[in-house]
Amino acid sequence: MGRLRLQPYLLIGHDIPMDSSADPIDSQQVEASQPLNDPVSKGLILTGTLMLGLPLLLSVVAIVFPSLLKVLLPECSLYKWTGIYCSGCGGTRMAKALLHGHIREAIGHNMFLFMMMPVYVVSALHFLIKGKTGRNLWPWRMRWYIWIFIILLGLVFSIIRNLDNPLGHWLAP
């Protein structure tokens, strides 16, 4: 039998095999209501939980035991050995500033990571929802070229923040 491509509001990014007598909405509801217990689904749930849980745990540690962060989060090895800022340099200071509600200061420490936080949170939620229900959270399929674009954006940010000009000094942590 043929494959029916459902509309995005029903089941985003999935192709469901359908026979000619089946109703697409009933098949979608049956598939979504069944829990997914395969290893891939469990791995997605674990990944999403860790992506959301570890930053929250570090936030609690930063508030309750601020001196413990120096042990848990060592300084950047790339900067320590070469003096070059990577795209993650200033991320810990950005997180501390956000915990205290200082958004402008957080942006000043690492604008790239600040702008990527929504992508990170949505990706973590995507893993959780995809692992639990089998549905995609993204309104489009996350293709490899989107991730390549984000990586290239990080590399360009790293290069610009190391330049000896006003823009480089402004982007440096």
Core attributes:
mainly alpha; two-stranded antiparallel sheet; 9 helices; globular; disordered N terminus; 173 residues
Task: Explain what the structure shows.
The structure is a single chain. Helix content is 63%, strand content 3%. With 173 residues, it is mainly alpha-helical. The chain has one domain (38-171). A two-stranded antiparallel ribbon has the order 1-2. It is globular and about 50 Å long. The model is unreliable at 1-30 (pLDDT under 50).
Strand content bin: under 5%
Q: Major sheet, described briefly?
A: 2 strands, antiparallel
Radius of gyration using CA atoms only:
21 Å
Molecular shape: globular
Overall pLDDT metric: 76
Low-pLDDT runs: 1-30
Strand order of the largest sheet: 1-2
In whole angstroms, how far apart are the ends?
58 Å
* SSE topology string: EEHHHHHHHHH
Number of domains: 1
Number of helices, where a helix is a run of at least 4 consecutive DSSP H or I residues: 9
Which structural class fits the helix and strand makeup?
Answer: mainly alpha
Topology:
Layout: E1 3-5, E2 15-17, H1 24-33, H2 39-64, H3 69-72, H4 77-82, H5 91-99, H6 103-109, H7 111-133, H8 144-161, H9 166-171
Antiparallel strand pairs: 1-2
Helix pairs in contact: 2-7, 5-6, 6-7
Short description:
The chain is mainly alpha-helical and 173 residues long. It has helices at 24-33, 39-64, 69-72, 77-82, 91-99, 103-109, 111-133, 144-161, 166-171; strands at 3-5, 15-17.
